[in-house]
Amino acid sequence: MTRVDYYDDPNAPKANSIAVAVSVFIQDDEGRILMIRRTDNDLYSIPGGQLELGETLAEAAVREVREETGIECEVTDVIGLYSDPKHVIAYTDGEVRQEFSICFRGIYAGGTLRTSTESKEVTWITQIDLEHLNIHQSIMLRVNHALSRTDSVYFS
């Protein structure tokens, strides 16, 4: 199933659902950022996905990183809570989801990079290389908040 992200677009379809999602910002010892290139929209992103029944937010974050990248991580902090109704995600099955995502900071705890059905590329990216990647503005917002390292949690 493919998806299209819309932000502040008057031509975007109206949301008809909302789901809890998580994402994780992880840097290695060299300061590089763990990124995937998604299979559903071909955009670069930090790893993440939907909360499943029976798991905590932190468990979902760790699971999504493992599933999409092969990397094990430990969740250490909350970067932000993102619920901007101007950001909707349209799926080919007709679902149009309003954004609702919790972005965590995580630390690398092992594993080896590998792709999955959700990631066609998994890589460590330098901050300079971010400028050259096709990244949706909602993900860049999370990355910028993570890199700013403020003491407060962002929320919308």
The side-by-side strand order for the widest beta sheet comes to 6-3-10-7-12
The structural class is: alpha/beta
Q: Whole-Å distance between the termini?
A: 28 Å
- State the CATH superfamily name: Nucleoside Triphosphate Pyrophosphohydrolase
Number of helices: 2
Q: How many β-strand stretches?
A: 12
Give unreliable regions as ranges. Answer: none
Order of helices and strands: EEEEEEHEEEEEHE
Looking at CATH, which topology would you report? Nucleoside Triphosphate Pyrophosphohydrolase
CATH architecture: Alpha-Beta Complex
Amount of helix: 10-25%
Radius of gyration: 15 Å
Number of domains: 1
CATH class: Alpha Beta
Bin the strand percentage. Answer: 35-45%
The averaged pLDDT comes out at 97
Main beta-sheet strand count, sense and barrel state: 5 strands, mixed
Shape: globular
Q: Can you describe what's shown?
A:
It is a single chain. The protein has helices spanning 57-69, 137-148, and strands at 3-7, 17-18, 21-27, 33-38, 44-45, 48-50, 71-82, 87-91, 96-98, 101-111, 119-125, 154-155. With 156 residues, it is α/β, with parallel strands linked by helices. The chain has a single domain (3-149), classed as Nucleoside Triphosphate Pyrophosphohydrolase, CATH 3.90.79. A 5-stranded mixed β-sheet has the order 6-3-10-7-12, with helices on both faces. A 4-stranded mixed β-sheet has the order 1-8-9-2, with no helix packed on it. A hairpin with a 5-residue loop joins β4 (33-38) and β5 (44-45). The longest helix has 13 residues, at 57-69. The mean pLDDT is 97.
